[in-house]
Amino acid sequence: MRRLPSYRDEQIGVVYSPGQYADFDDTDTGRNWRRKRIFLAVVAISLLLSLAYTFLRPAIYESRATLLVTPPLVDERRSEVSNAQHVDLELQYLAGHSLLARVLEALSTADNRADAAGLTLPDLDEMLQAVPVENTNLVELVAQGPEKELLPVVINVWISAYQDTHADSVAAESASEITETAQQLDEMQQKVTRKREELNQFRKDYDIVSMERNENRMLKQLSGLTDSLNTTNEEEVAASARLSAITAAIAAGRPVASEHGKDSLTNLDQRLVAIQEEIKELEHEFTPHYMAIDPKIKGLVRKRNLLEAEIQKKRSAGQQLALAEAEQNLATAHQSVLSLQAQLDEQKQQVMEFTTRFAEHEALQEELLQLETLYREVQSRQLQNQVNHKRQYPQIQVKEPAFLPERPVYPYYLRDSGISVAASILLGLLVLGLYDFLNRPGRQSGASQLQPVFVNAPGAPALEQVKGAQLPGAQVAPALAHQINRELSVSEVLTLFKAADQKSRLLITLLFSGLSVEEVSTVQTDDIDLSAAELSVRGGHERMLAIAPATAAVISACLPEDSPADFPVCPDSNGDALDAGDLDALLACAAHDAGLVNPTEITPQVLRHTYIAYLVRQGVRLSDLEGVTGYMPPTVLAAYAAFSPPGSGLSLDAVERGYPALKLS
Asked: Which residue among 132, 176, 607, 655 sits deepest, i.e. has the most Cβ atoms within 10 Å of its Cβ?
């Protein structure tokens, strides 16, 4: 249903186009009646079919019994994996056709033979199921079927047949296993005796006195010679490296000292350094001519020269001594290596033969160990069979016998009925949606869309008519929004200043002194008094500006040399002052050369605004700004109040006028 225009719409000037008032009631009684009949018919047919399927299925009952399968206790340290394996084996046997055949045979002779009549082996296979309980040794025997009285009978017969079969199997296997174990034990004992005699004879033949290889005499000698040779080789390598280093240092002219004369050479170096420092101090006090005639200074110079000669002499002697020591050490180490290598070669053949025999000894010993291990295992198995042969087989206990079920487990008539009802309703809604999609009406034209249009009512402005809500996109900008959209940082100003030429730097400096671009174009050479650090501003807002020291230094460096008093500070090629447009272009070029972000936004107004904001942030009184910038509208002054810190304002003399970037430049 579309919204009709209200009284408030007329008051605020909202009108609607013709045709929007027509056709507000689109109810179609015949169409809605057809939709209801379709929905009810689909739901009824779906309910009939689904409920018939649900309640015509027969009830399935379930009976359960629980068995505990205890694995054989051959080893008390058996793992969970072995438990699971034994349970799996019993599950396979419980579901085997051989056991089910015995169950079917037992049922035919039982008291409930009439109830079990007609059962076949496939029927039992489908009815019975053995399910393990996770992380336990329990097994659940499950029987499902439509006859609830038969289910516990079948499970109990199944358990009895399984227990009987298990007992027969244990009795038969235990008797044969005891006999077999006794024969194995006798054979293993004979093998162990023969292997021990063979090992003892081998030790006597080849003089093996210890079970550890390195504790025998031959290998101890070999180990000692090998360690000595390795140590001597390392000493030879070190001696050779030191000789090479000394030779290379002497060839390169670097100082090489022996350990014997190192202390005396160090003492001479210290004395030489002290004399050189004393001479340097005298050079700062006296002229070269005076130093050349003064006896004391001349004596110091002679003493320095003698020390330098003595040091050079000792270094030469130390080099020769160090070289001789290195050659002697290398020769000694080489001779030791040759001697040890000769002794080691003499022992090589004997060691190789002993190694071969000891390897054979270890092989014999390993074989004896394996035989003894096997003998103990067979002996332990025989003892276990004799003590308790029943514990070597899985034990079966009935933890919970089968019970007579009271209610069916399948199907869930109530749940399935609810699903049938929900599915029927959902199907009806889907069919109804398909019907609406296939019979949807045509789209209305755009003229029939309700679009309000704001107009001015007689006697009142448009903005006063819509109180409390602005038109789309309407905003109230601050006083500075239409003038300045950017403030430069100190680093940006410094980058701009360094990239600018001399004329652009002067323009930037004057803008950061409080002048406007129009005032800069009127400044002449005689308006600047660097000795008094003052700048006279002409025009409509005449004033005398104090120049900060850093600003005065930049202006002095950028002013044209030998220019007349009435010469403009920013002239063109003809000597005429550049106008405001030319100065804007000059600053734009400098911004592009500096590589600043969005250089087209950097104008003289932006630089002047940056300087004013710098003064206001120091806490200067807003009323004193006109002493620097000239006249400013009160609305603009009020807008700069947002930059001022809390507290009372300061005078111009109490703040720093020089912009930081001009000091860093």
From this structure: 607
Closest CA to 491 of 596, 585, 617, 615: 596
The sheet that has 543-546: what strands, in order across it? 528-529, 534-537, 543-546
Q: What is the mean pLDDT of residues 164-177?
A: 75
User: According to the model, what pLDDT value does residue 582 have?
Assistant: 92
Question: Which of 55-59, 418-422, 561-565 shows the lowest mean pLDDT across its residues?
Answer: 561-565
Please state, in angstroms and rounded to a whole number, the distance separating the CA atoms of residues 393 and 176. 14
Alpha helices in 513-572 (DSSP H): 517-520, 549-558
Q: What percent of the chain has pLDDT over 90?
A: 20
- Straight-line distance from the first to the last Cα atom of the chain, in angstroms, rounded to the nearest whole number: 73
pLDDT bin (cut points 50, 70, 90) of residue 140 is confident
Q: Which of these, 124, 129, 81, lies nearest to 106 by C-alpha position?
A: 124
How would residue 5 be classed by pLDDT, with cut points 50, 70 and 90? very low
Query: Hey, how many other C-beta atoms are within 10 angstroms of the C-beta on 476?
Result: 6
Phi, psi of 642 (to 5 degrees): -65, -25
Q: Residue 434: helix, strand or coil by DSSP?
A: helix
**DSSP letters for 569-617:** SSB-TTSPBP-HHHHHHHHHHHHHHHT-SSGGG--HHHHHHHHHHHHHH
* Closest among 106, 164, 156, 108 to 128, alpha carbons compared: 156
Q: Can you read off the two tokens belonging to residue 259?
A: 């350990």
Task: Among 190-194, 237-241, 358-362, 383-387, name the one with the lowest average pLDDT.
Answer: 383-387
